[in-house]
TrEMBL record:
InterPro entries: GreA/GreB_C_sf, Tscrpt_elong_fac_GreA/B_C, Tscrpt_elong_fac_GreA/B_fam. GO terms for molecular function: DNA binding; RNA polymerase binding; translation elongation factor activity. GO terms for biological process: DNA-templated transcription elongation; regulation of DNA-templated transcription elongation. The lineage of its organism: Bacteria, Pseudomonadati, Pseudomonadota, Alphaproteobacteria, Sphingomonadales. Residues 80-149 form the Transcription elongation factor GreA/GreB C-terminal domain. The keyword Ligase does not apply. Residues 1-24 are annotated as: Disordered. This is Transcription elongation factor GreB. Pfam families: GreA_GreB.
Length: 152
């Protein structure tokens, strides 16, 4: 029989499974972010015993990601009250519309809850600004007006 018609195992024909990509840069987290990582690990570990072989592989892959994120987590210092930084909650005006966001770590970001990663362009544009300042964004020099600064 020709080698072209032989099939050693199904493993040879599976799509390769790559590790989950880690965001580049430091793994800054808020206190809440650190808790969320621990909760995610606990939930995955609870799923593991009852999972079939394929699900076990996926869970193990996710656990490697989250355990790496826990090991590399850097608790960010409390942000200053008068300057936008990691961990700040910012109320601002963009294109005449007032909005509010919290600046958090990559894994904690949740745009639906108005939490954006510190690496997002909007967050990077506002970092270091103070209340009342205007900030350049999206090609406009005074696109953003900082209305209020607090903590996440």
């Amino acid at each position: 029989m020709s080698v072209a018609f032989r099939r050693e195992s199904d493993e040879e024909h599976k799509e390769p499974r790559f590790e989950l990509p880690l965001p580049s840069g430091p793994n800054l987290v808020t206190e809440r972010g650190r808790v969320l990582i621990d909760e995610r690990i606990a939930a995955l570990e609870a799923e593991l015993p009852g999972a079939d072989e394929l699900a076990r592989e996926d869970i193990a892959r996710q656990l490697r990601y989250w355990k790496t994120r826990r090991a590399t987590a850097i608790l960010a210092p409390v942000p200053p009250a008068d300057e936008i930084a990691f961990g700040s909650r910012v109320r601002f005006r963009l294109n005449g519309k007032e909005q509010e966001i919290g600046i958090v770590g990559d894994d904690e970001a949740d745009p639906a809850a108005r939490l954006i990663a510190f690496s997002a362009p909007l967050a990077r544009a506002m970092m270091g600004a103070g209340k009342g300042e205007r900030v350049a964004f999206n090609g406009r020099e005074d696109a953003i007006e900082i209305v209020e600064i607090g903590r996440v």
